[in-house]
Specification:
By secondary structure, this protein is of the alpha/beta class. It contains six helices and eight strands; from the N terminus they run βαβαβαβαβαβαββ. The protein has a single domain, classed as Alpha/beta knot, CATH 3.40.1280.10. The structure holds S-adenosylmethionine.
């Protein structure tokens, strides 16, 4: 199962931090990559740096055409899932998503109306307004039944040794990530 997040509606001046959080959350909770429908290289730089330092092979592609990406995803047999408070509530539709290659779309500002029809599923994480980061996190967690929290991230410079108090970090390679 491949899971890629498509972030649309990103406004560089306003959404820098939250879009970075969408990418970091997607990576940390088991998605394979993020497509960003905006030309904002800083987002890619900062998430690439996290991957270099902490491992895994999460990718970020910027400046994508979101309609083309949706078309490509459907052509290859994948399912397009739009996260919106107006959709079917997650527990009622998660069964349809399991085992499928998923393109999970999250908005920032109001999303284009056409998206509701282009998506195979419109999914709400509770039918109340909240945040794309919270919605994405819960969808990824439900999809993997919590197993993503034990995922091993290989190839990074650093690895955390979980401790009850303080901080323990193992250096796994020579420091090479760009500052
Ligand atoms: N004001 C915008 C609108 O009217 O569409 C929504 C802004 S909301 C902070 C940004 C994104 O968070 C939405 O596009 C959606 O992807 C996600 N989101 C917010 N609440 C959600 C919910 N209850 N379930 C699923 N996704 C949600």
């Amino acid at each position: 199962m491949t899971v890629v997040v498509l972030r649309i509606g990103h406004r560089p001046a306003r959404d820098m931090r939250i879009t970075t959080h969408v990418g970091m959350t997607a990576r940390a909770l088991g998605a394979d990559g993020m497509l960003l429908a905006a030309d904002d290289p800083k987002i890619k730089e900062s998430i690439d740096k996290v991957v270099c330092r902490w491992g895994g092979d999460f990718f970020v592609k910027i400046d994508v055409d979101w309609k083309k990406e949706i078309g490509r995803w459907k052509e290859s047999g994948g399912m397009v899932v739009h996260l919106t408070m107006y959709g079917l509530n997650l527990p009622d539709a998660i069964g349809e998503m399991r085992g499928r290659d998923l393109l999970i779309i999250v908005g920032a500002e109001k999303v284009p109306a056409s998206l509701y029809n282009l998506a195979d599923l419109n999914i709400a994480v509770g039918n109340q307004p909240h945040s794309e980061v919270a919605a994405l996190a819960l969808v990824l967690d439900h999809l993997q039944d919590g197993k993503e929290l034990y995922r091993d991230f290989t190839g990074g410079e650093r690895k955390i040794v979980p401790t009850r108090s303080g901080k323990q970090v193992k250096r796994t390679a020579i420091e090479s990530c760009l500052r």
